[in-house]
Amino acid sequence: MTATDNQGRTGRGPVRRRLVIDLTPLRESPDYRRLWTGHAIAILGTQMTRVAVPYQVYVLTDSTLMVGLASLAQLIPLMVCSLFGGSVADAVDRRKLLLVTEGLLAVVVGGLALLALLDSPPIWGIFLLVAITAGLSALDGPARSASVAGLVRREILPSAFALNQTLTQVGAIVGPAVAGVIIAALGLSMTYGLNVLTFVLSIMVLSRMRPMPPSHIVTRPGLTSVIEGLTYLKGKRAVMGCFLADLNAMFFGMPRALFPAIALDQLGGDAMTVGLLHAAPGAGALIGALTSGWVGSVTRQGRAVIISITVWGLAIAGFGLSQWLPLTLLLLMVAGVADVVSAVFRQTVLQLSVPDHLRGRLSAVHIGVVTGGPLLGDARAGATASITSPAFAMVSGGLASAIIMVLLGWRLTALRRWTLADAESDSDADRDRDRDRDRESQRREDRT
Question: Could you say which architecture CATH assigns to the domain 222-448?
């Protein structure tokens, strides 16, 4: 018989070893299925807008600098709002937060659609709207990530994150391709309008989820709440290890900034070669996600993080050495597979090591690391290549990433040995702390 716990999740025993992606979370949890489906609809439109905005800015200004500034306009509100977005996600009904943010995103993208109808839309208006979009996304992301652990049983949580990664990679590949066709055939305004439609459809799906109110006495959103979340990290060596591991991989091994130089000079290619280099990691990540059925059978998730990031670094080093395009693409695809595997297990460690009332804030820190790390990595790679060569920048960076990951794995015993049993132990300790915290909060309220 199938057992059902107090959150409506079903338990069906151990996850079987398999290769093809595990669909158990979608079958077992109707609410996870709705969360996933809503995200699947919205992410396609979001990726279309991410292509349309830089294209529109470049057409209007004929300036790559302005295109870069459009990205910068999004970075600041994304980084700032993600931390506070996490504190909001821990203090309110996460379902309502998702509905509100996606509704506001539909309105803002609708503003972009209206601006695109003008003959000469103001650049400052586009910058303002994309900055607001980034800030709203920083509210949406932590709430979405923090919701998953409450919708599926812990044994299949890695499979749920693998399904999420599949969405991300499919969106990154399909969205830009669809955007190019729609922009050419129907224009920018219609492209933005279709993104609005995807948000509306997503809201319709998410509205069928059950409410997800806080299960504890909450801390009011704000700076105090953010500090509480960051303070919690002090005693969580496994979670800190995941953050350090990802920063290491992205800072030393991020190859994106050097794709043009390596494609044109080292490989003797052209613009199409540059495009292939950009597509290869995403294609590898998609393959990794679609063949991730085995992740649920892994017992040492922390060790899997260490191994996958070490493979990432070695693949990037090989990419820097390669002068044959097929081998180069293969190595980038291997790096993409390693990246998606690392992401699945890092999310598992994070979500199961953190109590529910802090998941939003810690998810926000994770999003900040994932967003900021590649930008720092691009800067490091470009600076190193300008002093030495693109090949040296990639080989040295990839090897450094692999070596540092091995050293981190050796030093960070908590990460190397982390298993689901540690998550259960953490949950018991967190429940005791939460009980004491709630009692103290109640006593303070009674006194006032």
Answer: Up-down Bundle (1.20)
Nearest to 226 by CA among 151, 167, 293, 138: 138
Identify the CA nearest to 162 among candidates 42, 15, 45: 15
Tell me what the pLDDT averaged over the chain comes to: 81
Where do the domains of the chain lie? 29-213, 222-448
Q: Do the domains 222-448 and 29-213 match in fold?
A: yes
Distance CA 79, CA 71 (A): 12
pLDDT at 5: 43
29-213 falls under which CATH superfamily? MFS general substrate transporter like domains (1.20.1250.20)
CB contact at 8 A, 202 and 60: no
Cα 97 to Cα 87: distance, rounded to the nearest angstrom: 12
Please report, to the nearest 10 degrees, the dihedral formed by the alpha carbons of residues 61, 65, 67, 73 taken in order.
Answer: -120
Do 375 and 251 form a contact (C-beta atoms < 8 A)? no
Pick from 262, 109, 126, 263: nearest CA to 196: 109
Please say whether the beta carbons of 130 and 182 come within 8 A.
no
Residue 55 near residue 197 (C-beta atoms within 8 A): no
CB 263 within 8 A of CB 323: no
Other CB atoms within 10 A of residue 435 CB: 11
- Render pLDDT for 53-110 as a digit per residue (tens, 0 to 9): 878 888 888 775 677 677 777 777 877 777 777 777 777 888 999 999 999 999 999 9
- Beta-bridge partners for 340: none
- Continuous H helices in 90-187: 94-116, 123-148, 157-186
Q: Residue count of the chain, please give it.
A: 448
Q: CA–CA distance from 79 to each of 74, 147, 257, 360, 365 (Å)?
A: 9, 20, 21, 14, 9
| Residue 287: how many other CB atoms lie within 10 Å | 16
- Tens of pLDDT, residue by residue over 314-371, are 999 999 999 899 999 999 999 999 998 998 888 888 877 777 777 777 777 777 777 7
Which residue type occupies 314?
L
